[in-house]
Every structure is written in C-alpha cells, then in structure tokens.
Amino acid sequence: MLMAILAILLFWQLSAWSLPDFLMPGVPAVLARITSELGTAQFHAVLAGSMGRLGAGYASALLAGIGFGLAGGILQFFREVLKSAIIVLQSIPSIAWVPLFLILMGFGNVPIIVVVALAAFFPAALSVMNATESVLQTHVAAARVMGAGPWDLLRRVYLPAVMPELITGAQLAFGNAWRALISAEMLIGFGQGLGRSLAYAGETADMTGVMANILTIALLATLIDQVFLENIKRRILRYQYV
In whole angstroms, what is the distance from residue 26 CA to residue 134 CA? Predict the structure, then answer.
C-alpha cells in the first residue's frame, strides 16, 4: 500500500514539474494546503457533513442488504425476483438517480443519502444472498432435527455461514457508497461536504484546492477501508472460527 501511494505521488510530482503551477500544483504545495486547513472549523464542517451522509446511507444499505439477501437466499420464489431486479438496477449508475430524487425529495441531505444507500445496497445484498444459497441443506436439516426454530436457524446456521461473504460485500459496498457520495455532493451542491468543496474549487479555478480535495478524498477512503473496515473484518472472522 505504501509503495503504491509513493508511486502515485511521484508520478504526480513529475507531472507538476512538466506543467505550469496554475495547471498542476506540486505535492508539497498541496500537502501544505491540507495541513493548513486540517484544524479549521470549515474543514471540520465539511468532513462532518460527508461522514454523516455516508454513515446514514451506508448503514441503511447494509441493513437492507442483509435482510433482502437472507430472504433471497432462503426463499426460492423471492430469490429470482430479487436477483433479476438487482441485475437491472445495478446497471444504472447511481448518479443517474439524482435528478429523479431531487424532484421527489427536493434539495437536502435525503437525496444524497438515498443515492449512497442505493449504490451500496446491491453488492451487500448479492454477497449475502449468494452465501445463503451455498449453506448446506444437511446443516439446516440437522439443526431442525435438533429442534431449531426459524430464529435459531437464522442465528446459528445462516448468519455464521454468510459472515465472511457479508464482510467482503460490505467492503465492496463501501467503495460504491463513497464514490456515490462524492458524485452526489458535487452534483447537488447542497450544504457542506467533500464533493461540494471539490466542485467549488473547480468552479473557482483553484487547482491547489482541487488537488487538495482529491488527495483528501483518496486518503480518507483508504483509511476507512484498509484500517477501519479491515480491523472489523479481522476481529469478526477471528472470533467466528475460534
């Protein structure tokens, strides 16, 4: 990971040396801008706005994905309907829903949160449904013979079996959710947010601000995915197989 980051920064700096500063600022200038803004109230407001929308949309998508995925994996008639619907709907870029949601819901946080949730729902639901389908029926039958009810089957058979796939799906869902968040904030332009800050820097031809926002977005996504989500993954899977 560190080598990849250094290679990207090196390529960036080489590009900056070959172009005028007003077109491509160098890495030191962008890092200085980020450092100067980290402690400001403006940056905290921007970060809080994006994280709040991401948290609401991402959490909603995971909960819905688990519920629909389990139902689709267990119920044969529902499985085909859900799978067909996901195939059709996930082919539509999440940002394409923004005009419709703006008309239905108006400007505000809600359409952004819905776009984020929609983008993250598909990989979460598919991963859970596919894992649920793969649960051996002999395990289910054995649990029923031992007196397990529907809730016991869900808690002791299905959920442990789908947990590894769920975590993988959750990481894929985060990537979709993050991209949808930034795109929706740029397009809708409501309130404080990383996407809105990036769009404003572009509108004012502030290339240092543009690159500072791009670098911040990339570093935050890497931090959340590779540190926060990976740590949760290791903890859950470690306790599962102990």
Answer: 51
CA–CA gap between residue 183 and residue 240 (Å, rounded): 36
Residue 95 to residues 74, 170, 173, 185, Cα–Cα distance (Å) = 32, 20, 15, 10
| pTM of the full structure | 0.82
User: Rounded to whole angstroms, what are the CA distances from 167 to 64, 72, 179, 191, 236?
Assistant: 14, 18, 19, 31, 9
What φ, ψ does residue 204 adopt, rounded to 5°? -95, 10
Distances (CA, A) of 103 to 8, 27, 108: 40, 41, 11
Which residue ranges form the domains of the chain, and what is each CATH number?
43-240 (1.10.3720.10)
64-115 pLDDT, tens digit each: 988 888 888 777 778 888 888 888 888 888 888 888 888 888 778 899 999 9
Q: Cα separations (Å) of 46 from 5, 38, 116, 190?
A: 24, 11, 17, 11
